[in-house]
Amino acid sequence: MQTPDKRMVRAAAVQIAPDLDDGMGTLERVLNAIGEAAGKGVEVIVFPETFLPWYPYFSFIAPPVLTGAEHMRLYEHAVSVPGPVTEAIAAAARRHGMVIVLGINERDHGSLYNAQLIFDADGSLKLKRRKITPTFHERMIWGQGDGAGLQVVDTQVGRVGALACWEHYNPLARYALMAQHEEIHAAQFPGSMVGPIFAEQMEVTIRHHALESGCFVVNATGWLTEEQIARISPDEKLRRALTGGCMTAIVNPEGSHLVPPLTSGEGMLVADLDMALITKRKRMMDSVGHYARPELLSLEINDRPAVPMRPASVPPQPSFGSARDEADPSDRRPHPAAADSGADDRVAVLRSTPR
C-alpha cells in the first residue's frame, strides 16, 4: 500500500540583480542568497534564467552589429560545466543540504548555451539541460539544446524538472516533464524586460502549468537597477524596454499563489509546499494518468544528445542525468536504434517463415 505523501518542503524563489561587471561578483550574490535561504530553513531554491554571469539584456535592444564587444564579454565570464563555479555551487548545496536550480550562460568551447543546472542536496549535479530553442534576439547569442535535457530528476525534495522562459509556450516540452511525474517545476525568466504585459503573461503561464501538471511551480525572475538599465543603454526610449516583466512566484498544484508574487525590486519568496496537494489535484485530473488518452494522443521524444560527431563503432551513450536512470533503473526503454534493430529482426523472421 502506498502511504499518503505528508512531506512539507520549504521552497524559495529569488529575484535578484546580477553584477554586470564580473561573473564572480554574481556568483558571490548567488552564494549569499543561498546562505540567507539556509537561515530560513529553505530546502530548494530557484534563481533566474541565465543569472550567471548575467542575462544578455544588451541583445534585446541593440542591433547585432553593435553587440560584438558585449557578446565577447559574455564569453569571457560564461560558466564551464564542470568548473570552479559549479564546484562552488555544489559545495554550497552540500553544506546547507539544499537543492539548487541555477540558470547559467554555459560556454562549451566556441559556443554559448542557455543552461539550467539542478544540484541535489548532497552537492551532486543531477541535471544540466539547455534551452531547446532560444527566443528571438537570443538566437544571436546561444546555440540550441536537445531532447536529452527534457528530464525530471529525483532529488532530496522530490522529482524536479525545469524549463526556461518561453519554453513554457511549447506544450510538448511541458508534457515531456509532466509525463515523468514532475512534482516541483523550476521556471526561470530574465525579468526586467518588455514591461508589465510580460509579467502578466508569465503569471498565466506558470499558473496554467501548475494546474495542468498537478505540480508546484517555483518561478524566479531577474531584476535590473535603474543604474544598470542606464548603463546598458544611453537611449531613454530603449531603456523602457528593460523595465517590468518581473513575476517571481510560488504556485501550488491548484494554480494559487502560496505567497504574494514579487513584481519589483530584489527579494526572496519563501513558502512551504504541502506535497499532499499533488494527489489532491491529480485525483480530479491527472493529465498523464487517468485523464490521458495515449491510444489517441501521445508524445514521442528524441532523447539522444545532439553531437556533431558520433563514431559508428561506439554505441550511443545514455544522456546526462537520465530521468529513467534516476527514477527506476528497471524501467528503461530501448534506444530507438535498438528498437529499430529489433523490428528489422522480426521482419526478417516473418519473411523467412515457410508459407
UniProtKB/TrEMBL annotation:
Residues 9-275 form the CN hydrolase domain. Residues 323-334 have a biased composition (Basic and acidic residues). Residues 307-355 are annotated as: Disordered. Gene3D superfamilies: Carbon-nitrogen hydrolase (3.60.110.10). GO terms for molecular function: nitrilase activity. It comes from the Bacteria. InterPro entries: C-N_Hydrolase (IPR003010), C-N_Hydrolase_sf (IPR036526), Nitrilase (IPR023919), Nitrilase/CN_hydratase_CS (IPR000132), Nitrilases_CHs (IPR044149). Belongs to the carbon-nitrogen hydrolase superfamily. Nitrilase family. This is Aliphatic nitrilase.
